[in-house]
Amino acid sequence: MMMHIKKCILEDVNHLQDISYKTFHETFKDQNSQENMTAYLEKAFTVEQLEKELSNPFSQFFFIFINHEIAGYLKVNTDDAQSEEMGKEALEIERIYIGNNFQKQGLGKQLFDKAVEIATTLNKKKIWLGVWEKNKNAIDFYRKQGFVQTGAHSFYMGDEEQIDFIMVKTLL
Fold first, then answer.
1. CA-based nearest residue to 89, from 115, 123, 56
2. Which helix (H) or strand (E) holds 37?
3. How far is Cα 49 from Cα 145, in angstroms, rounded to an integer?
4. How far is 79 from 85, CA to CA, in rounded Å?
5. Which active-site residues does the annotation give?
6. What is the pLDDT of residues 10-58, one digit of tens each?
7. pTM for the whole structure
8. How many structural domains comprise the chain?
9. Which whole-number Å values give the CA distances from 24 to 28, 31, 46, 62, 104, in the listed order?
10. pLDDT (tens digit, 9 = 90+) per residue, 72-129?
11. Which residue range is the domain that position 130 belongs to?
């Protein structure tokens, strides 16, 4: 198995849209109504929205490839691109998604390690993220990586309010 990580550029927007739709839908379709899923996907992952995010100097996206196929992706934010006010010393992992057919191969850990590498390079003191309270696998993964829950915030899936745990890891 050949694995590599590549930074996304504006010209990758259609591939980013494809993997974003696919992985979000696979991850959350069983726990949400089709209407709310569609409403969210059509808002969060339009080409225009993804181009805006790709163009933000404080956001970075990375694809992870297995044998030349996009298996998942990572999105990190710093400074004003963070989805919550966490300060200049923080890096947010906004998204780590791996396609169902690539799960349990350590790819999430590879993307997590990439985020830590970026945070370290930028001299950040902590990494944080929001994770849905019902996403037990992700919560368990982040706890294993040294994250602790420090709070919660609302996340809207269509018209349904859901709760995301805020989890933080302090970097040494």
1. 123
2. helix 34-44
3. 30
4. 8
5. 142
6. 999 999 999 999 999 999 999 999 999 999 999 999 999 999 999 999 9
7. 0.95
8. 1
9. 6, 12, 13, 16, 17
10. 999 999 999 999 999 999 999 999 999 999 999 999 999 999 999 999 999 999 999 9
11. 3-170
